[in-house]
Amino acid sequence: MTDLNKRELFGSKLGFILSASGAAVGLGNIWGFPTQAASNGGGAFLLVYLILIAVVAFPMLVVELAIGRHGQANPIDSMRKLTDSSGIKPLAAGVGWLGLCVPTAVLSFYSIVGGWIICFFLADLCELVNFSDQAAWLEKFSIERNIFGAVIFYLLTILIVQGGIKRGIEKWSVRLMPSLFILFAGLFVYIMFQPGAVDGLKMYLIPDFSKIWDKDLLLAAMGQGFFSLTIGGCSMLIYGSYLSKSANLPKMALSVTLVDTAVAFIAGLVVMPAMFVAMAQGVEIYSSDGSLLNSDTLVFRVLPMMFEGLGSWGSIVSLIFFLLLTIAALTSSISMLECPVTLVSERFNVSRNVSTWGLGILIALFSGVILFSFSSMFGLVATLATQYLQPIAALMFCIFGGWVWKRNRKVNELKQGFPDFENRFFGRIWPVYVKVVCPVLVTAVVWNAIF
Fold first, then answer.
1. Exposed, middle or buried, 296 (CB in 10 Å: 0-12/13-18/19+)?
2. Residue 5: its pLDDT value, please?
3. Separation between Cα atoms, residue 417 and residue 149, nearest integer Å
4. How far is CA 335 from the centre of its chain?
5. Do 19 and 259 form a contact (C-beta atoms < 8 A)?
6. Cβ-based burial of 423 (10 A; exposed 0-12, middle 13-18, buried ≥19)
7. Which residues lie below 8 Å from residue 298, measured CB to CB, with a gap of 6+?
8. Dihedral of CA 280/285/286/291: which sign?
9. Whole-model pTM?
10. Which tens digit of pLDDT belongs to each residue from 197-253?
11. Residue 195, Cα to own-chain centre: how many angstroms?
């Protein structure tokens, strides 16, 4: 069990906010969100998404952060501390193990995609210095290229996590997250000067109110908002465990929600206009029935075609775009690896260096198995992790946080750092909301994801 006096904490509120935001910000924001918006009516999807972030994701984020800070330990021990019942403690521990499976499973395929992104980034670098053969190898799908990219991605992730909370995760998140916003801003300004960009911006920002009650759109927006903040992914629970008791949890959760949502919103500002720029260049984006073509390969096929059409500046714009994706992927992957590293370090008293490298290599070997059986395993692992494990883990966190964790105990946890919690509107409705409303909404997400 963890010695609370020795447990490392985040060094600053900003460090926590940027680290937790980085855990939430990932390919789901920069790749998934614009793709969902483009497939579901643009502005209508954006409006519904923003509403559902507030009514579904934010209250659940407070729950996970509170469970983590209350336990000040790995997911298994934090969940056990929610109850004094000897009969329920094993069930709580089981929920912790289920939650821990999510980041481990996600990292095994996420690192492969992260490797692709790094290879595209390196390919653009090679193009800039006229290494055409090397660029072609980096862009071509092959087992050798995929292994090369995944190894680099794992090394970067392991080296950051090895540094610990302050010298690793916090240090790099404080550098990477502002870089993300700066690169986004530059890319947005450039793309908006291209023919067709304004049409994409209009579709993204002007909602068609006739579509906002569409069942598929509502479920897609709810699922995107749910996954955007990694609800059920264990990362927020772990980062919450490194928070000081003096921190205002609802305020921290709100800051993380706003930063994560801002990244998704800005990604839409860049990608949606970029799609219409590509259409103006003759690239097919939508089919005759209005559905999005190549949604799964939008980032790796459609947008690079648009970049090629920009002439001499194309490689530089593409380089910046894939650097953005690399940063977003890394800020998420370090939180995924941190989850099992915390468990092994605490439960078995193993040094952070040994647990980080050991677990990183172990998960990397499983990624290698996926790569060598790519056609049968990649989709299977991705589906199992994101459509089954994560939503079910989130539902369990919700049930235990709402029903098993006694009201007075969770309210007292929130009052540390926020003494006036119970007197505020949010403080009065939150305990009931996470007990009744959140489980219903999360069940809808689970049902939609599975069936």
1. exposed
2. 44
3. 43
4. 9
5. no
6. exposed
7. 31, 34, 35, 271, 275, 292
8. negative
9. 0.87
10. 899 899 899 988 888 888 778 878 877 877 778 888 888 999 999 998 999 999 999
11. 32
Give tens-digit pLDDT for 62-116.
999 999 999 999 999 999 999 999 999 999 999 999 999 999 999 999 999 999 9
Q: Name the amino acid, one letter, at 413.
A: E
Q: How many residues does the chain have?
A: 451
CA triplet 303, 331, 96: central angle to 5 degrees?
120
Both structure tokens of 243: 């928070």
